[in-house]
Amino acid sequence: MKVTQLDCLCLILLHLLHTSGSERFEVLGPTDSIVAVAGDDIILPCYLKPNISAEDMTVDWLNLDFLDERVFRYQNHRIIRDDQIPYYRGRTSLFEEELWRGNTSLKLTRVQGTDEGHYKCLIQSKSWYDDFTVQVLVKAVGSKPVVSIEGHREGGMGLLCESEGWHPDPELVWLDSKGVHLSARTLETHRDFKGFYRVKQHVIVQETDTNHFTCRVQQKRINEKMETEIHLPSELFDPTPWRMAFIVLCCLGAIIGIGLSLAIYCICYKKGNGEII
Ligand SMILES: *[C@@H]1O[C@H](CO)[C@@H](O)[C@H](O)[C@H]1NC(C)=O
Ligand SMILES: *[C@@H]1O[C@H](CO)[C@@H](O)[C@H](O)[C@H]1NC(C)=O
């Protein structure tokens, strides 16, 4: 029997695998990203293959989208809370009763906007380590938009639309009754301390035949929208002070007109009389 170089290499590799094999493991988890609804509790799955105990290992959960990445650490049979990203304080845990069978899944409670990111599950024994990364997407549908009337602005009526509690950040559009987009001011977007988005936008509308206007806030990634319709009575577009001013001007004009005609008539009449005399 001929032994080739390749066979030799394989044998050596197999031997190495066997001798160091007692401590070797793979870290596995879901290949699809996890979509989490804001406010829910979620599990980020992660486990060892083969299913050896992780009780004597160091288990790190990191959020790679943060500079200071630590979400959770288990080491020397204890939970280490130093250097934990403050957003995760009091919201993370492992299933400690599951560690002996290689289950190092992380439980994250009350999901919030800042939780979106890439999470690495890193497991280290004394002689080996491996990791797995899973992506978490956070979905939050915000509040029904609140529309308020701001009064007369630049020859139209000023309206303001506001909605909060979104993730990811939504778009906002103003529509007239025919569904035509109205051009509005720039969208103002703010992020609160939990990572949810609040948006608001001003618009100036002109009188139409129906005076129905809609503010729609939508997020295409999560395929959600919320909208509010407002009806403006047409008297609003017809401001009383202006009408009064117009009437007063008309009256003044009429009085001045009559006065002038009278004066002209009198002068002519006197002149006429004078010539006759
Ligand atoms: C570990 O895996 C083996 C085979 O995959 C299975 O038979 C066994 O029940 C598992 N052990 C635990 C503790 O889950
Ligand atoms: C790990 O434990 C959690 C909680 O009991 C369970 O939901 C999950 O399915 C387990 N994962 C594996 C891979 O066994």
Automatic annotation (TrEMBL):
<dbReference type="GO" id="GO:0050863">
    <property type="term" value="P:regulation of T cell activation"/>
</dbReference>
<dbReference type="InterPro" id="IPR013783">
    <property type="entry name" value="Ig-like_fold"/>
</dbReference>
<keyword id="KW-0325">Glycoprotein</keyword>
<dbReference type="GO" id="GO:0009897">
    <property type="term" value="C:external side of plasma membrane"/>
</dbReference>
<dbReference type="InterPro" id="IPR036179">
    <property type="entry name" value="Ig-like_dom_sf"/>
</dbReference>
<dbReference type="InterPro" id="IPR003599">
    <property type="entry name" value="Ig_sub"/>
</dbReference>
<feature type="signal peptide">
    <location>
        <begin position="1"/>
        <end position="22"/>
    </location>
</feature>
<dbReference type="InterPro" id="IPR053896">
    <property type="entry name" value="BTN3A2-like_Ig-C"/>
</dbReference>
<keyword id="KW-1133">Transmembrane helix</keyword>
<feature type="transmembrane region" description="Helical">
    <location>
        <begin position="244"/>
        <end position="268"/>
    </location>
</feature>
<keyword id="KW-0472">Membrane</keyword>
<keyword id="KW-1015">Disulfide bond</keyword>
<comment type="similarity">
    <text>Belongs to the SKINT family.</text>
</comment>
<dbReference type="Pfam" id="PF22705">
    <property type="entry name" value="C2-set_3"/>
</dbReference>
<dbReference type="GO" id="GO:0001817">
    <property type="term" value="P:regulation of cytokine production"/>
</dbReference>
<dbReference type="GO" id="GO:1903037">
    <property type="term" value="P:regulation of leukocyte cell-cell adhesion"/>
</dbReference>
<feature type="domain" description="Ig-like">
    <location>
        <begin position="145"/>
        <end position="231"/>
    </location>
</feature>
<dbReference type="InterPro" id="IPR013106">
    <property type="entry name" value="Ig_V-set"/>
</dbReference>
<dbReference type="InterPro" id="IPR007110">
    <property type="entry name" value="Ig-like_dom"/>
</dbReference>
<dbReference type="InterPro" id="IPR050504">
    <property type="entry name" value="IgSF_BTN/MOG"/>
</dbReference>
<keyword id="KW-0812">Transmembrane</keyword>
<dbReference type="GO" id="GO:0005102">
    <property type="term" value="F:signaling receptor binding"/>
</dbReference>
<dbReference type="GO" id="GO:0042110">
    <property type="term" value="P:T cell activation"/>
</dbReference>
<dbReference type="GO" id="GO:0050852">
    <property type="term" value="P:T cell receptor signaling pathway"/>
</dbReference>
<feature type="domain" description="Ig-like">
    <location>
        <begin position="23"/>
        <end position="135"/>
    </location>
</feature>
<keyword id="KW-0393">Immunoglobulin domain</keyword>
<dbReference type="Pfam" id="PF07686">
    <property type="entry name" value="V-set"/>
</dbReference>
<keyword id="KW-0732">Signal</keyword>
<protein>
    <recommendedName>
        <fullName>Ig-like domain-containing protein</fullName>
    </recommendedName>
</protein>
